[in-house]
Amino acid sequence: MFKVFRHYSLARSPYVSSSAQLTSLLRTRRSYFSTSSIAYEELKEISDVSKSPMAAKAKPEEITGNIDLKSFKQLSGVVHDDLIDAIERLKFSKMTPVQEKSIKPILETNRGMVARAKTGTGKTLAFGIPLLHDAIFSDNTPKFNTEVRALIIAPTRDLAHQISAELRKVLLADNPTKYKRSIVSEIQTVVGAERRDLQLRAFQGKNCPSIVVGTPGRLIDILNEPLVAEKFGNLRFKVLDEADRLLDDGFKENLLQMDSTLKDLATGEGFRTILFSATIDKNVLGFAKQVLGNDFVYVNTVDPNEPETHEKISQSLVVSDDMFKCFVAAVHNIATLYMESREKNTPFKPIIFLPTIKSVEFFGQLLEHYLAHCHDVRFCRNSRDKASKRLRLLMLHGSKSQAAREAVVRDFKKYDHSMLVTSNVGARGMDFPNVTNVFQVNLPSEVSDYIHRIGRTARGDSNHGEATLFITEAEEKGLRLFKDRKIKFAKTLTFDDVVENPESTINAVQEISTSHTYGLGDPKTQRAEGIDNKKAVFSTFRGHMGYLQSVASVYRLSNFDLLASLNEFYKGFCASTKRPFLSPESLSKVKLNNREKEELYESPRSSTRSYGDNNSGRYERSNRFERSDRFDKSDRYDRSNRSDRSDKFERSNKFNRSDRFEKPGNYERSDRFKSRDRKSREGFDYLRDSGSEKSGKRNNNRNSRNSKNDDFDFFS
Ligand SMILES: Nc1ncnc2c1ncn2[C@@H]1O[C@H](COP(=O)(O)OP(=O)(O)OP(=O)(O)O)[C@@H](O)[C@H]1O
């Protein structure tokens, strides 16, 4: 039988009668344990937080000190023994540092918490175990659940599903014979792009999940339903996973609003807020101050003298002259490593990050054709074909349907003989087993993204991972922000170091990108109109224009240098010496002066002869215009998918969601707004306000926000 409070009979709410008592109790206990350097730094950081103006009155007590717990067994008396047994059945014998330092304070104090620990160190169970204990295992848990006791908020749908699955795994380990449906109904996932009516049914009548995991948009939406809202009256914990991402500019207000809605709904003691991430910034601490009133525990397992990246990951940098070579170096390097791994029979399971949705598609298809064309690699294209030993090349991004996204995540988790090409949507929290390498093409939209992306390798018990960043010379100066975060590259290579035979490699790539056999664009359009890769090259180029201009403002880089380097992407993949053509509208939105624009782009004013790579005059010009219209159509297709989402939000009137859609978004998302603005035919809406310095500034902010939020599902 479960015996609570064996060690902490004085504990308050429900285990400690006062936090002061608990502190003194812990101090006494701590004196019996040696203090590690991490513990020392951690205490120092706590006092740093308390000294900061933001947390001037904060009294983060020494609760997060070195309570030297090692095995889960040592949680006995705090956490239900059945739960401990279940965790041990999952073969987790020892706690990770963040679990060691968070589980007890979450259960034993009545204060909120901010916790920071490196990627892949078990943060999910660090908050999951206390929540499972309180909501399902503790003696206080009602036998028939009628109320939601814990709410977990995640930035992406995929992450929300993953958290639910991890918690259900623990429940299943506790009771393998339990009817699967009842385990699923204990933990309800509430995310956008899935049937709302089914999600609401989980709260109908006597039904009620103990733990709800979701993305903010749909959570806010269903909280407007009285039927759901009343079940949140006795909420005890609210967790923000990947808190810094959730609290990015523009979203904080909505989460604060959700917080106040939940506080209004509270009928009992109220709930505690817990914030977790590998990267804690001033946004998170500011939010903590606002909702927790300066009184929170700060757990930090990252030594301030060390980089935030995991020491188990060896990091390399490849700098190429321009964007074309940058892509070629990445494709060639990944293909070479894959072929080596096949020869030596060693594992190779990479994730490749690209900045925009269009570039994910482009790079994924280019890599696939390169492997097929140059190395005769055969692919498994049917996700139901379980027996196939062929390589699975999977693509994940925000404009795939939710079902397709789930299938990709499932397959990449399941099959080690696979590669994943993804946008930022796969960057945070996703726990794919056995990932050996992380490749990133171009600077990420912020340094934290770099830290989270490379954290997809060397997770949990895994001892080593490789991370490679491919950038252009124009991006190189941005690395000073990496240096500020103590990020060090073990190796810095050039295009020539990575590509042994540049000429034949470039020829092979151009053979693919200019061919009528290997399609790089939307397969549906290609089926209907024949393969014309220039469209795919141009639309990837266009998406990158937006991205690079936002990167320029985040890293303070030269727009001209970045866009000049991007021109080489267009020329290289079209095997042409001509500059790309931009319509006057598009040109007016590029943040360059007229001379620079003339230098980089063809336009009706600068030339009546050549449009893109052709010299055939008027016909080509109109052709170009037509093409850009066609691009617009395909973007409209993207938009219509998304407008579905916004329709869903219209249902709720409490939060003005449609407004909020202006805030997040990515480069693809910005396309959505085109229908409202017929003038911006070519999709450079992210530059809408350029002009006066003031509006330019506003723009920069918006761009950096857009870039940060590339591909996340906050409000869906
Ligand atoms: N005590 C433990 N011992 C060994 N492995 C563990 C332990 N706790 C969790 N894990 C495993 O470690 C892996 C990473 O855990 P998790 O996804 O929670 O990391 P995280 O810290 O949340 O990472 P991220 O910052 O990327 O979100 C998972 O596969 C998880 O099952």
Polypeptide structure, described:
It contains 29 helices and 16 strands. By secondary structure, the chain is an alpha/beta fold. α4 (97-108) runs parallel beside α5 and α14 crosses α23. The longest helix has 33 residues, at 618-650. It starts with 10 loop residues before the first strand and ends in an 8-residue tail after the last helix. Adenosine-5'-triphosphate binds next to α5. Its EC number is 3.6.4.13.
Portion of residues in beta strands equals: 5-15%
Radius of gyration: 26 Å
In terms of structural class, how would the helical and strand content be classed?
A: alpha/beta
* Ends distance: 43 Å
Can you tell me the overall shape? globular
Number of β-strand runs: 16
Helix content: 40-55%
Low-confidence stretches: 1-67, 607-710
Strand order of the largest sheet: 5-6-4-7-8-3-9
Main β sheet profile: 7 strands, parallel
In a few lines, what is going on in this structure?
It comes from Saccharomycopsis crataegensis. By secondary structure, this protein is an alpha/beta fold.
Topology:
Blueprint: E1 11-12, E2 15-16, H1 19-30, H2 37-51, H3 81-89, H4 97-108, E3 112-116, H5 123-137, E4 150-153, H6 157-174, H7 180-186, E5 187-190, H8 196-201, E6 211-214, H9 216-223, H10 226-229, E7 237-241, H11 243-246, H12 252-265, E8 272-277, H13 282-292, E9 296-300, E10 313-320, H14 323-344, E11 350-353, H15 357-375, E12 392-396, H16 402-414, E13 418-422, E14 437-441, H17 447-454, E15 465-472, H18 480-484, E16 491-494, H19 495-498, H20 502-513, H21 523-529, H22 533-555, H23 559-574, H24 584-588, H25 594-600, H26 618-650, H27 657-660, H28 667-672, H29 693-708
Parallel strand pairs: 3-8, 3-9, 4-6, 4-7, 5-6, 7-8, 10-15, 10-16, 11-13, 11-14, 12-13, 14-15
Antiparallel strand pairs: 1-2
Helix pairs in contact: 3-6, 4-5, 14-15, 14-23, 15-20, 15-22, 22-23, 22-29
The structure holds adenosine-5'-triphosphate (ATP).
Residues 92, 94-96, 99, 117, 119-125, 278, 429, 431, 455, 459-461 line the site of adenosine-5'-triphosphate.
